[in-house]
Write a structure and sequence with these properties.
This protein has about 260 residues and is an alpha/beta fold. It has one domain (about 10-30, about 40-70, about 90-245): Alpha-Beta Barrel (TIM Barrel), CATH 3.20.20. Helix content is about 45%, strand content about 15%. The longest helix is centred in the C-terminal third of the chain and has 18 residues, at about 185-200. Bound molecules: 1,3-dihydroxyacetonephosphate (13P).
Amino acid sequence: MSKPRKPIVAANWKMFKTPSETADFFKTFLPVLGNMDGVDVVIAPPFPCLPAASEHAGKSIVRIAAQNMHPESSGAFTGEVSAIMLRELYVTYVIVGHSERRTLFGETDAFINRKVLTAHASNLKPILCIGETLEERDGGLVKEVLSRQLAAGLAGVSADDAIETVLAYEPVWAIGTGRTATSAQAQEAHAFIRSELEKMYDAPTARRMRIQYGGSVKPNNAAELSAQPDVDGFLVGGASLESGSFFEIIRAAVQASVEG
Ligand code: 13P
C-alpha cells in the first residue's frame, strides 16, 4: 500500500549560497537526482539566487520557491518583493510564516494570512510553516498553538486552495539545533494538524493536504520520520545545502511513500 499523498521535499537555504554557488549546486544535484519520480522537489534559495535557480532547474522536476514575499503587489515597501515579481522568475512556491520570520521579524498570524491569500490569488503555492516553541511544548500548549496558527493562517482559504497549500510543521526547538522531534512526536502533531484541517474543511480535503516535517532533518533520521503515516515530506534547512545529503532525504521520502 502506498501513501495517499505524493511527498514533497523542500530545501530552505535561508541566507546561504550566492548565485554562483546556486549554479554549482544545481550542476551536481541534478545528475544525482536523475529521473527520480513520485516526489515533488522544491528549492528555496535567497532572492538574488532565484534567476540562477530557475534557469538551472529548467525542465527538471525541481520547482523553485521563494522564502518570503509581501502581500501587496507593489508599493512603498522598501526591501520587500511581491508575488508578481516572483512569478516572473518562474517561482512556483513561497514559504510563509517561517518561525525565523515570526520571531526575528515580528510577523503576525494576520500578516502571514494575507501572504497566503495573495499567494493563491497569484498562482503561487504557499508552504505555510507552523510550530510551537520549547516553552509552549513544556507548557502543554502544542495543540493550542497549532490550532491558532492554522485557523489564522488559513482564514478565508477555500478548500480548493487549501489542497494547493503545503503545511510545514516545524517545532521551533528542533530548528537548527540538531534536536529532531521523535517520529512519534512528529506523527502526533501531524495527525492533530490533519484532524484540525478536517474540522476546518472536510475529510477528503484534509486527506489530500500535504504536511511536511521540518527541524534538524538529516539523512539518518529521514527514513523513520517518513515512515509515519501523516508525514508527507520535509522542509530541510542545513542538510539541504549539500546535494548528497539533500538527495538522501528525498530518497527516504520516496521509499517510504512507495512502502506506505
Ligand atoms: P534545519 O533543518 O537546519 O533544522 O532547519 C529547518 C528549517 O527551518 C527549515 O525551514
